[in-house]
Specification:
Length: 223
Amino acid sequence: MNARKKVDFNLVTDLVPNIVSFLNLFTGFFSMILVSSGNYSAGAWLIVVAACFDYFDGYLARKLDLASDLGKQMDSFADLVSFVVAPSFLAVKVILEHMETWFVFIGFFYLTAGVYRLARFNVGQAMKNYFEGLPSTSAGIIVAMVVLACKSDSLVDFPLCSFLLAVFMVGISFLMVSKIPYPKISALKSGRFRPVFYLGAVAYIFGLVRFNHETSFALVFLI
């Protein structure tokens, strides 16, 4: 008679970190539901909320030393929904308000770039101070902020917003698959990436003075 294998379950290490990933996943999923009903602003803000959960998930894993292979995969799949699929869906809905149907391929282009970016990160060697290529989280926030900026300036109903968003989507897609180093938040204190911090501050102030808060945040995450 075969002995039953004992499986140890630790509530803290096996459940708590994954709950935050599930919150990230749910927020991205709910964002698409709101966008499908025409509530673009709320859907865009939920992508930003998902980014907060994503940050807290990583912070919790590092602070409590709870990192695991399962947790990394959970986080990656949640990011796929919240920062790749949801922003792509949001952008396509806005773009198709005034553009031809074939512009849907711009959303698919962003989608494939985001999937490639996450897959490359999963199989590659993580750098200590920077990310290789624009992180999918930042990309998702930029898309959300561009939509919110258009809404803030009452441009969401005009073709100009759809065109600008399409251009941003293409540019962001290339940045995600590029090998441009993007510093981690913790690395901004170091001498090498300190100029990036100052550049981000200048970009934020410029966006705030010339446009609005949403445009400022989009410029900061783009840098």
